[in-house]
């Protein structure tokens, strides 16, 4: 059996698991804190299929009954209202249900606790994620992308499903660290897979599709996760979302049997097209470079430092955007579900456009060096003014639209930085350099989250992210020299 365009089937499967990756990653963030609305009634009727709230004058509390049957007794002082006090709004979520946030604290104190504790849990996730980035690249270089992806997905899928068993901050953090160990693998793995399956002029576009899939996952995450949360509760939501990755392993192992050189399903034309347009395919007796060899070459710091400064922008949005929209604009759970996806739509378009743009320049005759650098610079020029404008937004709609430009510019730039390992190295070192870049990105993100804990103002916090862009671009341009295969 021969399959036309087999390389697109491979990247298609990687896109699918990347979407699932971001669903798994978003479970905690979107269910961490949520404004849940209840209809105020004189007396609760358990037979009604809606959230209801009843005021209990004797102890100045509200009895809250969800349509799923969960009941909460909440102090009146901690309740807010909408629609001329016909709708009761209660802040709840995993942070409250597991006792990580003090249920009796004032809204201001509870908000700070929620932000700080989510930041701490995310830091431990990022430590595991960074450790995995560092070694996943080496692992994928050693065992190949077929086994590498299957291993990563099995670890993170089980981790997300097992999070349903969390009893408090310690167990929750442990499961998130397990999630991080698995989820990091596809980043160096995709760079390596694209280097194997695509000619050089298509690699940035393939990397852009990968980045777009991350954005698609972020687009649908609030809708899917919060819909499941409303219907099933947070525990079953973890189980359902976690099981998706495990199921994905089956088609992956069936379709991705071998690389393009040996795969029995690939057409002769596609094999020739791929291999004849890979500069590293001319290299024989290739030996994988050690970390010390990679770190001793200045060019490689274009990836390491470029991602160290730039990646925190993405992670700060992924981690704190739901909480930001809840606190700054008072969005309820449904409003959050249908607005938090907008910035990631911009990210998806930016990812595809960034990959297409540098590939287009190459096809028009530009060198790889000029094409990559031009794309990186253009993306940076989009990010900075968009961040400045977004933090001045006066309403949620304006904020999320402007943030779409921020994340669009980010993806336009990052897909080209992520392609640099395959521009600079042969196959056996691509994953290793990509892993070093990923680990540097994690370190930068951890430092950014620690810094965020010292800043009370959301506006000031997001505004400071703009300063990271010129630092990232300068790191790339001052270290990489001419973008070409390192001899």
Number of helices: 17
Uncertain segments of ≥5 residues (pLDDT<50)? none
Spatial strand order of the main sheet? 4-3-2-1-6-5
Q: What's the count of strands?
A: 6
Succession of helices and strands: HEEEEEEHHHHHHHHHHHHHHHH
Helix content estimate: 55-70%
Q: Label the structural class.
A: alpha+beta
Distance between the termini: 39 Å
Main sheet summary: 6 strands, mixed
Average residue-wise pLDDT: 88
Strand content: 5-15%
CA-based gyration radius:
24 Å
Shape: globular
Describe this entry's structure for a reader.
Helix content is 69%, strand content 6%. The protein has 17 helices and 6 strands. Strands 4-3-2-1-6-5 form a 6-stranded mixed β-sheet. With 487 residues, the protein is α+β, with helices and mostly antiparallel strands. Helix 1 packs antiparallel against helix 7 and helix 10 (301-329) packs antiparallel against helix 14 (396-424). A hairpin with a 4-residue loop joins strand 2 and strand 3 (61-65). The protein has helices spanning 6-32, 94-97, 107-162, 169-183, 186-197, 200-232, 234-255, 268-276, 291-295, 301-329, 333-337, 342-363, 368-390, 396-424, 427-452, 458-464, 468-480, and strands at residues 34-40, 52-56, 61-65, 71-75, 80-82, 87-92.
């Amino acid at each position: 059996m021969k399959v036309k365009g087999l390389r697109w089937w491979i990247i298609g499967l990687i896109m699918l698991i990347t979407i699932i990756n971001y669903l798994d990653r978003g479970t905690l963030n979107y269910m961490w804190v949520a404004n849940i609305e209840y209809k105020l009634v004189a007396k609760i009727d358990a037979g009604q299929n809606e959230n209801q709230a009843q005021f209990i004058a004797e102890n100045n509390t509200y009895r809250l009954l969800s349509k799923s049957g969960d009941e909460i007794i909440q102090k009146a002082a901690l309740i807010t209202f909408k629609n001329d006090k016909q709708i009761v709004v209660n802040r709840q979520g995993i942070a409250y249900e597991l006792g990580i946030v003090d249920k009796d604290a004032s809204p201001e104190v509870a908000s700070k606790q929620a932000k700080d504790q989510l930041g701490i849990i995310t830091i431990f996730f990022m430590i595991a994620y960074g450790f995995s980035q560092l070694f996943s690249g080496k692992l994928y270089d050693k065992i190949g992308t077929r086994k590498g992806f299957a291993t990563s997905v099995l670890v993170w899928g089980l981790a997300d499903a097992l999070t349903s068993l969390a009893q408090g901050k310690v167990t929750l953090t442990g499961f998130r660290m397990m999630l991080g160990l698995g989820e990091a693998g596809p980043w160096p793995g995709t760079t390596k897979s694209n280097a194997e399956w695509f000619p050089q002029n298509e690699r940035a576009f393939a990397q852009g599709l990968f980045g777009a899939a991350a954005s698609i996952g972020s687009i649908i995450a609030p809708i899917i996760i919060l819909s499941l949360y409303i219907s099933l509760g947070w525990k079953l939501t973890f189980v359902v979302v976690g099981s998706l990755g495990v199921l994905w392993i089956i088609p992956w192992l069936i379709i991705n049997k071998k690389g393009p050189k040996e795969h029995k399903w690939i057409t002769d034309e596609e094999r020739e097209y791929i291999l004849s347009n890979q500069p590293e395919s001319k290299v024989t007796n290739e030996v994988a470079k050690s970390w010390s060899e990679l770190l001793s070459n200045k060019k490689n710091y274009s990836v390491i430092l470029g991602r160290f400064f730039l990646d925190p922008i993405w992670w700060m949005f992924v981690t704190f955007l739901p909480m930001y929209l809840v606190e700054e604009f008072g969005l309820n759970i449904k409003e959050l579900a249908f607005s938090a996806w907008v910035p990631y739509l911009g990210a998806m378009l930016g990812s595809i456009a960034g990959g297409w743009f540098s590939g287009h320049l190459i096809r028009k005759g530009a060198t790889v060096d000029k094409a990559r650098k031009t794309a990186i610079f253009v993306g940076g020029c989009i990010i900075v003014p968009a961040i400045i404008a977004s933090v001045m937004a006066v309403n949620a709609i304006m904020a999320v639209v402007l943030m779409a430009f921020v994340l669009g510019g980010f993806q336009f730039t990052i897909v080209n930085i992520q392609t640099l390992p395959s521009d600079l190295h042969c196959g056996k070192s691509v994953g290793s350099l990509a892993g070093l870049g990923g680990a540097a990105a994690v370190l930068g993100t951890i430092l950014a989250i620690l810094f965020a804990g010292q800043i009370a103002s959301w506006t000031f916090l997001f505004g400071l992210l703009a300063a990271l862009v010129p630092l990232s671009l300068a790191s790339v341009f001052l270290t990489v020299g001419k973008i070409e295969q390192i001899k």
